[in-house]
Amino acid sequence: MTELDLDSADGRQEALRRMVTIRAFDQEAGNRFADGEIPGFVHLYIGEEAVGVGTCAALESDDYIASTHRGHGHCIAKGLDPKYMMAELYGKAEGYCNGKGGSMHIADVDAGMLGANGIVGAGPPMATGAALSIDYQDRDEVAVGFLGDGAVAQGQVHEAINLASTWDLPAIFVVENNHYGEGTPVEKQHNLDNLSDTAQAYDIPGVTVDGMDITAVAEAVAEARDRARAGDGPTMVEAQTYRYRGHYEGDEEPYRDDDEIERWKEQDPIESFKDRLIERGELTQEEFDDLESEIESTIDDAIEYAQAADYPEPSAAYEDMFVDQPPELQHFANVARTDGGANGGDHR
Amino acid sequence: MATIGLIVNPAAGRDIRRLTGGASVVDNYAKRRVAECVCDGLTITGEPLEVLVMPDRTGIADHAVAEAPAETDATTLEMPIEESSADTRRAAARFREEADAAVVLGGDGTTRDAALELGDVPLVAVSTGTNNVVPSAVDGTVAGAAAALVATGTVPADAVTTRHGTVEARAETSTGERRLTGLAAAEVSSKSFIGTRALLDPSDLRGGVVSQAHPSNIGLPAVAGALEPLSPTDPGGVAVRLTDPDDAPRCVRAIVAPGVTATVGVTSCDRLEPGEPATFDVPDGVVGADGERELELTDATVELTPVPDGPRLVDIDATLERGAQAGGFEIPAVDEPQRE
């Protein structure tokens, strides 16, 4: 993704912009969820911005990513528009999935974002599938599957990495080790200090990097991408990071204390990258303040857009599932249209 | 009772050169086994030893203590754990006061961090890292035996230790002075950021100063060693300036990382006297130490200076030979039981 190229000053500015956008988006999503405006659950990416943006900085725009339940950051990193993302969170028809997915199911296949999802460890199988498709069609892209530390022990993750490894597929598995699987510390889930050690079992390289440093993540994923494109198969990149908020909004977080959170904030990925750009003379504090204000306005606009947008028609519940809609579903869709949804879902 | 300090860096031997080169992963299981072997080796002299182990959160130190032979009194140091190089430095500083010899498991970076704090304590450096110019790829049991022979005085430390030089980096930047110490080398890279730390691409390397140089080394010491070999015991250093091979007056083939050989263009390669600096302008780059990027710099001038009288390294083979000569491995013969 050349516009995120960390080897250029413009690319670095854009990377910083996306990290700040992720944080602003998720802070506001958390606020609006607390206000009861957003249905379902939201899992915020605040603190982990360097992983998503660093990963996408190493990708080309036609590469694929498959996300997790904590997917807002991945979406913005991949270039999705906060306006349509927020509409999706609000369950509105203007959202990326017509309001039917919500926070945990945002997808924009055209942008290479294969989807967030609510199933722990579901990203890697999607990435392996996309990588198989790329390989089968003899194309040059790669597919990234994000997963959390808790997902490393999931069976489907093993299947996905095993097949990608066995078939030398152009996949990259990015483990976002934020040190908690919901409320369980990583050391109580795994008998490994570095989760990338699991890569050895698949005979693929695994590397652990500082997930609070966008340059470290981007460099590792870039190497993994080169390897994948050379036909050498998948790589596992473990990014050690931290989420500042609870597992979900409303989580009382009895499993950690404020001191721990504050210690991680000392390595804040946005602050540290901003400081480095200032030291390089590529940014001033005033310019950064202006950037934050501009992004705040962008997110405010996204909220207003989402609030004003329409909910999907009840009949839309029967759409977008099959290329050729089965007659039964067509029938129910017609019923929903006729009675405005009052009995649209009742097929007894 | 003599005291041995043991440092096992859990983070050593894991960096991205497993992905970009041919370096092997040295996982915690392997490190636990090596640490266990070190402790077993300590029993070679038959004398009881106290073993102080740097604590960590990975279980390596706890395992070493739990599995230590009965002839040793092994404990972990009481100290905070930061899971960074500060742990190594803190433990080494304790060993400076409390240990008769130290065993360090890691690469050049770990060895350097320990060496900077160990003072005169003899250091047995065992390779479990990536860039291993100084540490020896030796079985942990052998390393433990050497440490025991030195710590107990079975072998005089002066007879089997040498002083290794270091390289001091001093950077003048618009925001002030910054410093860094390398054990085998201090390098200048044109990469803008620390990134994954490892110096990956030789074409990014602008040069540096090494404290030892030999073609069998890895990284910049190997490049320098191809043209101007320098023994670790020789004072001074070698300054190497690199450029694109297409524009270079000389080119050498060198081992630039595990599993990576490359053609490197050399502008100059000169011996430096102890304390004689080599100056590099760094418009946008990183200064590294021992194969790892450390300091991001822009519009800076960097002086790299070889400094003598660094850490006191134990020659493991010489120690064991000397131990044999001194009869250190002999035990009183057991009388054959008489037959009735």
UniProtKB/TrEMBL annotation, chain A:
List the cofactors.
thiamine diphosphate
Oxidoreductase recorded as keyword: yes
Q: Name one GO molecular function term.
A: pyruvate dehydrogenase (acetyl-transferring) activity
**Which biological process, per GO, is one annotated for this protein?**
pyruvate decarboxylation to acetyl-CoA
Q: What superkingdom heads the lineage?
A: Archaea
Q: Which UniProt keywords apply?
A: Oxidoreductase, Pyruvate, Thiamine pyrophosphate
Q: Among its keywords, does the record have Oxidoreductase?
A: yes
Looking at the record, the residues that make up the Dehydrogenase E1 component domain are 17-314
Q: Which residues cross the membrane?
A: none
Q: What is this protein called?
A: Pyruvate dehydrogenase E1 component alpha subunit
Automatic annotation (TrEMBL), chain B:
The question of whether Transferase is a record keyword is answered with: yes
**Keywords (A to Z) from UniProt:** Kinase, Transferase
Biological processes per GO annotation: NADP+ biosynthetic process
* Taxonomic superkingdom: Archaea
Q: Does the keyword Kinase apply?
A: yes
One Pfam family name from the record? NAD_kinase
Q: Its Gene Ontology molecular function terms?
A: NAD+ kinase activity
- PANTHER family according to UniProt: ACETOIN CATABOLISM PROTEIN X (PTHR40697)
Name assigned to this protein:
Predicted polyphosphate-or ATP-dependent NAD kinase
Please tell me the species this chain comes from: Natrinema hispanicum
